[in-house]
Amino acid sequence: MAIDVDCTLHLSRAVIGPRRSPIREPEQVEELAKHIVASGHHLVGMMAYEGHVASVPDGEVGPVGIVKRWLRTKSMEDLAPRRKACIEAAQKYADLEFINGAEPARLPRAWMKAR
Question: Where in the chain are the domains?
């Protein structure tokens, strides 16, 4: 099994990004990871992909470009430490084979060993 972490940016009056999961905070990840392992399943990975900024091209000029760059910066300031804490929370219960979305992207260990 893999845990999908919500990577949206929550602003005072808006939520930016796809709401892919109700799991958002490290405490929620830890609780879910503990439940997965305790129920006899294998936790092998985590998805934590920031599609709302990763899919937005850089270099746009003018006001739209300024807003996009601000949103990317704000989002990553929020997400980077939260994603790291979520990974650490899951790793208390399982040796994750993959993490999709971590900076930089990580490949499965089995694939890396085979190369």
Answer: 2-100
